Amino acid sequence: MFNTKITMLLAVMLLSITALSAQKFGYINSQELIQELPEVKEANSNIEAFQSQLQRKGQEMIQSLQVKYQEIEKNRDQYSPVQLEAEGQKLKAEEAKILEFEQSSQQKILEKSETLLQPIRQRIETAIQEVANENGYTYIFDYSLGFVLYADESTNIGPLVKAKLGL
Predict the structure, then answer these.
(1) Which helix (H) or strand (E) holds 141?
(2) Assigned domain for 119 exists
(3) Is residue 129 part of a domain?
(4) Which of 13, 24, 6 is nearest to 140 (CA)?
(5) What is the pTM of this model?
(6) Number of domains observed in the structure of the chain
(7) Dihedral class, residue 38 (left if φ above 0, else alpha if ψ from -120 to 50, else beta)
(8) Helix, strand, or coil (residue 24)
(9) 122 with 165: CB under 8 angstroms?
(10) 31 belongs to a structural domain
(11) Is residue 88 part of a domain?
(12) CB burial string 131-153: b at 16+ within 10 A, e below
């Protein structure tokens, strides 16, 4: 009975080792690949232009607020305490608008980035999957994420994916 269990355990281990050795592993450096894609450079340029546009608008809002602060400070003695309080409330409301604009700008930049880069990421993933299927790879690891401590250069599928993407 004991020998039967050991025999079965050894058989399962042997099958597992055989199954592992039949698997084919590959790797890719996705960051290197992304840097070579002209679409990524164009998308990044568009994102940077959009970010600059929002920053300019934010700076204009800040400058306008600063001018209003200076005008009130310069003419402070012409205001009654009630008027000064009212003007102060207006300025605080404008500050809040600027803060809200800055926060919404960050969100808009993230959304723009996602909108422009998602199709590119999908195209890369599809190319990797096609290369893996065509060449019988069971697993593909991303070298740029630091999970691969060593890899034989012959298992690098980067050139195949680049060819698939037309690079």
Answers:
(1) strand 139-142
(2) yes
(3) yes
(4) 24
(5) 0.69
(6) 1
(7) alpha
(8) coil
(9) no
(10) yes
(11) yes
(12) bbeeeebeebeebeeeeeeeeee
Alpha-carbon span 127 to 21, nearest angstrom: 25
Bridge partners of 141, per DSSP, are 27
Rg (CA), the chain: 30
Length of the chain in terms of residues written:
167
Q: Give dist(CA 143, CA 146) in Å, integer.
A: 6
Closest CA to 53 of 137, 127, 112, 94: 112
Give me the amino acid identity at 57: K
**Which domain covers residue 66, as residue numbers?**
24-165
Structure confidence at residue 71 (pLDDT): 92
- Cα-Cα-Cα-Cα dihedral sign, residues 26, 31, 35, 37: positive
Per-residue pLDDT tens over the stretch 136-153: 988 889 888 877 767 778
Q: Which residue has the tokens 């698939």?
A: 164
CATH number for position 87: 3.30.910.20
